[in-house]
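Supplementary Text 2. Reproducibility record for the structural model of the 341-residue chain.

All settings were left at their defaults, and a single model was retained for analysis rather than an ensemble. We include the record here because the model underlies the residue-level annotations in Supplementary Table 4.
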Amino acid sequence: MPAALPRTAREVRIAALPEGLPSPEHFAVVETPLPEPGPGRLLVRNRYFLVFPGLRTLMGTETDDVPLPPLRTGDTLFGPAVGEVVTAPDGSPLRAGDAVLHMLGWREYAEVAIADCAPLDGSLPDPVAYLAQGSAAYGAMTRLAEVRPGDVVFVTGAAGAVGSLAGQISRLVGAARVIGSTGSPQKAERLVSELGYDAVVLRGAGPIAPQLADAAPEGIDVLLDTVGGEQLAAALGAARQGARFALIGALAGQLSAGRAGGSAPVEIDSYQLVVKGISLRGYSGGDHPDVEQEWTERFGAWLRSGRIRFPYTPIAGIDHAPQALPDLIRGQHFGAAIVEL
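Retained model, structure tokens:
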């Protein structure tokens, strides 16, 4: 290994599994020996990593259908990360200095299999943009809901990592009016002034249904739902004939202190589905393998032209990372939450 490398590095581990929602004391920043890559593996110095709400599910007891491994006490957290290759084996297609995307965030240095790293190809103008969570929203808008010119679109969780991009995407693919939901007046103002939302309904300011009726008096054509719960039920009441609902999250249940992270029951009026001819489908990226590349190409072009913004909240350093997930769950961030190392 190059002499300039440190002997140790820090990472964030689970100190104790929470019984409800996680708090900073459930995590610990620990110092470990610097990884020594084996055959076919790289040493990567991480620069940025994403804090994503699915970690709460992985720490819970309802992980049977989740396509990621569960997390237990002593495990190091993980998630999307952008880093720089430090060492690579002979014959590797990647070399020292290459920027890569991988899934071993929450640590300063990662030992990663070559096959599990994707080189940053320059499609996006800023390396941190590779952590944007817009692919599912784009796929849901173009494959499931098929947003059409003139549509009225309602995006729940509009100030989150997905929603902050979803509203902009819906406008770019043809929506005439875009309505969002969020939990604070400050975020609501930013959604309108910075991200082009036409109106915002405020969680906690009274029932959602009448607020949505005021924001969309003629109804909605498309729902892009990251929350579920009361907001999904309210959207059914506001739906126009033939409305298309695309579900890509269920944070109302996933981030509930009274649940185990992997369920989100909600009572909906199935009669409305029938008489209005509403389609309601969940989006899975695995069902649409062509979406990721298409999204990256369009996202890069939109970023370069200034037609889209990538909002995120920077978190300075790994020492502040244990606070990042609890803050995300409490709605403290605007856009994606990204730890900068």
